[in-house]
Every structure is written in C-alpha cells, then in structure tokens.
Specification:
The protein contains 6 helices and 9 strands; from the N terminus they run βαβαααβαββαββββ. The longest helix has 22 residues. Strand 7 and strand 8 form a beta hairpin. Helix 3 packs across helix 4. The chain is α/β, with parallel strands linked by helices. The termini are far apart.
C-alpha cells in the first residue's frame, strides 16, 4: 500500500499534468466514517451520497480497501503514516526536480482533515516541512485558515444545507466550488463562474469566483440540493 496517487492514476490529475508544468499527487482516505473514523466533520447528506469516492477506479473493492487501510493507519499508527508520507513526498520532489516540474499535492482527496493544525513533523506542519510543494484542498469548514502558509490554498465546497457556512466562506473571500447538474451558468451567488473541470489546479484560480463542476457518477442522480441546477 502507498499513500499518494499520481497523475497516471487519476483522470483529473492527468488534466492537471497536461501543461507539463506540474507533477500532481493526491491522498485518498475513506470519506465520512467508512473506515470507522470520521474524516469529513461537515459532510452533508447530499455530499456523502454523491461523494466521488466511487468515481473512476474508486468502485473497485481493492481501491476502497486501500483507502480504508490508509485511514486506519492515519488514526491507529500515526508514526508509520508520517514516515510513509515523508518518503513519498520526498520521492515526488526528486521526480519533479528530474522532470523540471512543480510538485503539487492534495491531502484531502476524499476527506476534510485540518492539516494546518497538525504538527506532523516535530514543530512543523506538512506545509512548513515541505515549502517547495504546492498544497491545495477543497473544504466544507469555513473556519479553516491557510493564510499562515504561502504554499497552501483552500476552496470552499458548497453543498446541501450549508448556506450559513457558504456565506461565512464568501465573506472571507474564499473561492466557492459548486456542482451543477448540466451546463455551467455564467454567474452564481453573485460571482463569475469558471470551469473547474478543465483541471484541478485550484491554486491558479482568480479570486472571488465560483468554481463550476459538472455532476459526475452518483451526483447525476442527486436531488438533495447538493447538485445545483445549471444554465
């Protein structure tokens, strides 16, 4: 078992790597409480039901078993998890240097852990330990603050029933990710909508926009309010 998946294994990561400038990686844990441990504290009914956990190769039992194993490792043997994370990040940095690319890493591929609060490496967070990596994530926790870290950015995920949190995130100036059923509207919640399916490089997005994502997999049949009606 390894922790990080590369652009060769994830379709959205492949799109992110197309420019030739970035070498993207992602960490997938078992979302919500599938492992017995909660990793999505603000998950809504709709987002849990439509989660991309089973999209792509995620439907395979072997993939689900690996995500559960990683999550249990994180909670039950943190030292081993940290050692593996260090090894894989440093291997990724060597590969990025060899290929003259920028390594990027999403730690919350299918989770919403507040990594900025965790001193995984002595007195350092993972962002401080690896300043040459660009980290970014989606979150449903508007109180999260990546500002102390120049190499970490967050995009807020709009879902069913999280209008209050959405307004807090909007007032803070966070970009908002919204899943739409069909075509993307030109504007939503008073902001310009940009196409978030082009790639996954959210740290390159302009400020104060809505990241429009089209419904995929189980989300196509969602009517909980998680998926919004498009244009």
């Amino acid at each position: 078992m390894k922790l990080l998946s590369s652009s060769k294994e994830q379709m959205k990561m492949k799109k992110s790597a197309k420019s030739g400038l970035y070498l993207p990686y992602i960490l997938h844990l078992a979302p919500v409480k599938l492992s017995g441990y909660q990793v999505c504290s603000k998950a809504t009914k709709g987002c849990a039901a439509a989660c991309l956990n089973t999209s792509g190769m995620g439907y395979l039992n072997s993939v689900q078993d690996a995500r559960i194993a990683r999550t249990k490792l994180y909670f039950e043997n943190r030292a081993a998890f940290i050692a593996m994370l260090r090894f894989e990040i440093e291997r990724g940095l060597k590969k990025a240097d060899k290929e003259q690319k920028q390594m990027t890493l999403r730690l919350n591929g299918t989770s919403d852990i507040m990594w900025e609060r965790l001193k995984l490496f002595g007195t350092n967070t993972v962002f401080e330990e690896y300043p040459d990596v660009i980290f970014y994530d989606y979150t449903k926790i508007p109180s999260r603050d990546p500002k102390p870290f120049k190499n970490y950015s967050l995009t807020f995920s709009v879902a069913d029933g999280n209008e209050k949190e959405t307004q807090i995130a909007k007032d803070k100036g966070m970009n908002l990710a919204v899943v739409f059923r069909l075509n993307l509207p030109k504007k939503y919640l008073g902001r310009k909508v940009i196409d978030g399916d082009v790639d996954d490089l959210r740290f390159l997005d302009p400020k104060n926009v809505v990241i429009g994502l089209t419904a995929k997999g189980k989300a196509r049949k969602d009517y909980s309010g998680f998926v919004k009606e498009g244009a």
